[in-house]
C-alpha cells in the first residue's frame, strides 16, 4: 500500500486531545498556534507541552548523565495507557548547586525528555516562593485544593526549595507537600541552592529525612552561567 500525503490536519491522538484540554483550561488557544495561513502543520505532543514551559527553558536539553538516567528510569517505569505510557511511582531527583549552574535548565530538560519519549505526562511546576504565595490564606480562595493539586500531581517540579523565606506555616506546607509525595512515591523534581549539609537546618529534619530517602542526587557546579554567557 502506498501512503498518501495530504494537507489535512495532522492528529497526534488522545494525548494531544488531553493536552489541548489542559492548555485550553489555561487560556492557550492552539488553533492559532498550530495552523498558519490555512495550512495545517503537524503538532507534536512536545510542541504542545512546550507552551507551558517558560520561554527561557523551552529548548532546554537535559545533558547531565544523572538527569538523563533518571528520565530513562521514569520513562521505562511508565504504566501503559491509551495515549502512551503514563507516569508511575518512581524515584525523585534533587538537583543542587549554586545560582546559575543550570538546575532549572536540567529540570525542564528532564520534563521535555519524558514528553519527547511519549510519556503521558500530567505535570505541575512551581517555585517554592510561588508555592507559598499561592497558598497564602485569602478570601474566596481554596488553598487546600491548590495544595492537593500539587501534592497529587503525577510529576511535580519544585524549583528553588529552601530559597524562600520560611516560617512555621511555610514549613508545615512544605512538609505536607513532600510527605504526600514521599508516601505515594510520586516522582518529584526538586532544585535547591542549599548545600546538602544545610538541608536539615533550613528545611527541618522531617523534610530533609524524607528527601534523603526519596531522591537521587545531582550536584551541579561551575561558574554562574548567567554572568558568563552572552545575553539572550
Ligand atoms: N546545559 C546548558 N546549556 C545551555 N544553556 C544553559 C545550560 N544550563 C543552563 N543554561 C542557561 O544558563 C542560565 C542559568 O541556568 P538556570 O538553569 O536558570 O540556573 P539555576 O537554576 O541553577 O540558577 C539560563 O540562561 C539557562 O538557559
Ligand atoms: Mg533556577
TrEMBL record:
Pfam family, one: IstB_IS21
InterPro entries to which the protein is assigned, alphabetical: AAA+_ATPase, IstB_ATP-bd, P-loop_NTPase
Name of protein: ATP-binding protein
GO MF, one annotated term: ATP binding
Signal peptide location: none
Listed SUPFAM superfamilies: P-loop containing nucleoside triphosphate hydrolases
Annotated ranges, domain AAA+ ATPase: 89-224
Gene3D superfamilies: P-loop containing nucleotide triphosphate hydrolases
Region of interest called Disordered, as start-end residue ranges on this chain: 77-103
Alphabetical UniProt keywords: ATP-binding, Nucleotide-binding
